[in-house]
Structure formats: C-alpha cells, structure tokens
C-alpha cells in the first residue's frame, strides 16, 4: 500500500476488471490520447506483467502505466502511457507505478526505458527527468514522430531514452 494520509493507494498488476476504469481514467487525463476500452482491456490482461494500476480504498482506478519490453531490444522497456487521476496527483504516484513495474522479476534484463513525449508536456518531461536522476542514468531525446507523420493534427513526439540503469538501484 502506498499513498498519503488522506488517500491510501494500492499498486498491482491490472486485470480485466480494471479495463473500464483505466479507460475512464485516461479520458480524464488530457492531453493523453484515448484508445478504445478494448485496447485497455487487452493491456490489463495480455500485457499485465508490464503494466501497473493504482486503486484507492474503494477500488477506483486512480493511476495506470502501460508499456512492454521491446521484441527487438529485450533490455528496453517502452512506456506507452502514464496517467494519474486528479485526486492522486502530487503524491509521487506516477514514479511509484513506473518503479513497481521496473522492479518486477519479469524485467530483470531491462536496463533502459523509452517513451515518447510531446515538447509541451511539462509534467511528463519532469517525471522522466526525475526518474533519470533518481536512477543515476542519462536521459537522451530526439524527434521520433513528426506532426506530418501524425496526420498534421498532433504535436510531434520526441523519443526519450533513459539508461543504462541497474534494477537493484530501484
């Protein structure tokens, strides 16, 4: 259990019962891209070893991180989305969710984390800079997908890479 005095939180692997709650959470967290409820059900069931959900005492989903270990780079975890509901912001929950995943035995061989971030998403930039500092690892970024590649209606996405780091540091 994690959280603060006002809101105890529980972090665990997601399951099918969390799918709809994750979908609702993502919808409440702009500027995140909202995928289908089906996509979040797949993440909660087929990718549960590389995702994490946080719930409050009532079982409400208040945080979620999704990602996967890259097939072509088994030492790299690609973090797809991180979301923290308004009531749980400012508690360090995003960091705790990421570190809960990174400390799992299934990720013992992972020494790099990648994600994409739009240039103006200051909260995400702050999170990943803090993670890099906490893990004593370099952070590098470069443009990954241009606005044109994203259909002209989406900000460009920068690929951010943290690592190498050692899991035992977490």
Automatic annotation (TrEMBL):
Keyword presence, Repeat: no
Domain N-acetyltransferase intervals: 9-170
InterPro entries assigned: Acyl_CoA_acyltransferase, Ectoine_EctA, GNAT_dom
One family name in Pfam for this protein: Acetyltransf_1
CDD domains (UniProt xref): NAT_SF
PROSITE patterns for the chain: GNAT (PS51186)
Record-level GO BP terms: ectoine biosynthetic process
Keywords (A to Z) from UniProt: Acyltransferase, Transferase
One annotated GO molecular function: diaminobutyrate acetyltransferase activity
Pathway the protein contributes to: Amine and polyamine biosynthesis; ectoine biosynthesis; L-ectoine from L-aspartate 4-semialdehyde: step 2/3
EC number annotated for this UniProt entry: 2.3.1.178
Top-level EC class: transferase
Superkingdom of origin organism: Bacteria
Database matches in NCBIfam families: ectoine_EctA
Family: Belongs to the acetyltransferase family. EctA subfamily.
Protein name as it appears in the record: L-2,4-diaminobutyric acid acetyltransferase
Higher taxonomy: Bacteria, Pseudomonadati, Pseudomonadota, Gammaproteobacteria, Oceanospirillales
The gene coding this protein: ectA
């Amino acid at each position: 259990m994690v959280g603060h005095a006002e809101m105890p939180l529980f972090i665990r692997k997601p399951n099918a019962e969390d799918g709809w709650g994750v979908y609702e959470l993502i919808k409440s967290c702009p500027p995140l891209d909202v995928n289908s409820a089906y996509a979040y059900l797949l993440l909660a069931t087929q990718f549960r070893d590389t995702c994490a959900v946080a719930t409050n005492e009532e079982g409400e989903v208040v945080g979620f991180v999704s990602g996967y270990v890259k097939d072509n780079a088994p030492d790299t975890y690609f973090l797809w989305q991180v979301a923290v509901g308004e009531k749980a912001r400012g508690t360090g929950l995003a960091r705790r969710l990421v570190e809960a995943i990174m400390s799992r035995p299934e990720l013992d061989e992972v020494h790099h984390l990648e994600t994409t971030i739009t240039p103006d998403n200051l909260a995400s930039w702050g999170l990943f800079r803090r993670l890099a500092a906490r893990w004593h690892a370099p952070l590098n970024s470069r443009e990954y997908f241009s606005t044109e590649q994203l259909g002209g209606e989406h900000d460009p996405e920068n690929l951010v890479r943290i690592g190498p780091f050692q899991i035992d540091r977490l």
